[in-house]
Structure formats: structure tokens, C-alpha cells
Design a protein that fits this description.
Elements lengths: L4 H5 L2 H17 L4 H39 L1
Helix pairs in contact: 2-3
Protein name: Membrane protein
Keywords: Membrane, Transmembrane, Transmembrane helix
Organism: Acetoanaerobium pronyense
């Protein structure tokens, strides 16, 4: 079974689950609240960027697909 990474990386559920997992690990190893907040912010920023890039790529691909269909 092939994993659709584009779909997984653009999933908000995936990013929330990742943040929850990382937060729990950091709490378990006794990181401070401020350090945990910084890591969570970095993951959130990264996920926003990845979702934006994948979405724009999808939209651009559909636009090109429509342009090709119109020109044929």
C-alpha cells in the first residue's frame, strides 16, 4: 500500500496529532512550558507553510489542466 504523502502533509489532523505527540514527549522529559510553546509554534508555522505550498501546487496544476483541455 502506497502512502499518499501529499495528502498526509496537507492534513490538519496530521499536524495536530504531531503537535500533541511532540508536546507529550517534551512534557515527559521535563521541558519548560516556554520551550514547549516554542517547539509547538515552530511545528505550527511549518505545517502552515507546507499546507499552503501543497494547496497552491494543486490549484496551479488544476489551472494548467483546464488550460490544456480548453486548447485541445
Amino acid at each position: 500500500m502506497k502512502i499518499d504523502w501529499r495528502r498526509k502533509l496537507s492534513s490538519r489532523k496530521f499536524w495536530v496529532a504531531l503537535i500533541g505527540f511532540v508536546t507529550a514527549i517534551l512534557i515527559a522529559i521535563n521541558w519548560t512550558e516556554a520551550e514547549i510553546a516554542q517547539v509547538t509554534a515552530i511545528i505550527s508555522a511549518f505545517s502552515t507553510l507546507i499546507i499552503y505550498i501543497l494547496t497552491e501546487g494543486y490549484i496551479d496544476g488544476k489551472r494548467e489542466e483546464n488550460n490544456l483541455n480548453i486548447n485541445e
